[in-house]
Amino acid sequence: MCERYVLPDQLAAEREFLPGVAWWRFAPRYNVALTQFVPAVRLHSGQTEGVMLRWGLIPAWVEGASTGWHTRSVHAQRMGRSKSCRGAWQQGRRCILPMAGFYVWKLTAAQYRQPFFVRLRDRSVFGVAALWDHWSSEGDDVIDSCAMITVPANELLAELSGPLSGMPAILRRRDYAAWLTGSAEAAFSALSPYRAEWLTAHPVSPRVNSPTADDPQLTAQAG
C-alpha cells in the first residue's frame, strides 16, 4: 500500500512521459497525500495529455456530495469487480502517475511504524498505473479523480510493510503505451510486481507522518 509519495520536477516528468499536450502545472512535492491534486498522463482524442487529477477516485455514478468518496488504490485483480473502480476500468479510463519515490511503513518489534522512502535505483522519475473517472454534480461541479493500481508486494516491500500490503504497479517504460492505449488484455499484462533488485529503500524521519510536512529533507536517510 502507498499512502504518500513524492512528485518529481515537471520538466523531468515531461521528459519521461512526453505528453502531447501539457495542461498540468506542478512543482516537486515530498509528501503527497490523499485528496490532493496530482499530475497524471492520460489519453484524450488520440493523444496523451498531462493533467491534474484529485488523488482519491470518485465514481462517475455517485449522486449528491462527492466528499465521502476517496478510493486511494485498487488491486489489479479486483479492478473489474471494485464498486468504485469497475466503471473506470471497463471504460478504459487509464492513466499514469509520475513519481520520484514513495513511502511505506514497517512495524518494528517495539510496535513503532518506521517510515521508509522507496525509489528506483536507476531512474529518478517513473510511472505508476492508475485509473481515473469523471464526476459531475447537478450543480455542475466537476472533479476528475484517480486511484492507484496495486500489485502483490515484491520481496523488498513484503519485508518492509508485510506480504499482504501490496505495492504500487510501477510500469516499465516499454509498457507505458500498452497501459494507456492498449486493449484491456494488453494493459492488464503490463501490471506485475517491480523487481526488488531494481528498488532501494532507507528509513526516514517520522515527520513524514504529518501531511503538512513537505520539504526535501523528508526523503533523507534517518540518522
What does this protein structure show overall?
The chain has helices at residues 10-17, 86-90, 155-161, 176-181, 184-189; strands spanning 4-7, 21-22, 29-32, 37-44, 47-55, 73-75, 94-99, 101-107, 113-120, 126-136, 142-151, 167-168, 170-171, 199-203. The model has no long low-confidence stretch (mean pLDDT 94). It has a 5-stranded antiparallel β-sheet with strand order 3-1-8-9-14, with helices on one face. By secondary structure, the protein is mainly β. The chain has a single domain, classed as SOS response associated peptidase-like (hypothetical protein yedk fold), CATH 3.90.1680. A hairpin with a 5-residue loop joins strand 8 (101-107) and strand 9 (113-120). It is globular, with a radius of gyration of 17 Å.
List keywords for this structure.
mainly beta, hypothetical protein yedk fold, 5-stranded antiparallel sheet, 5-stranded mixed barrel
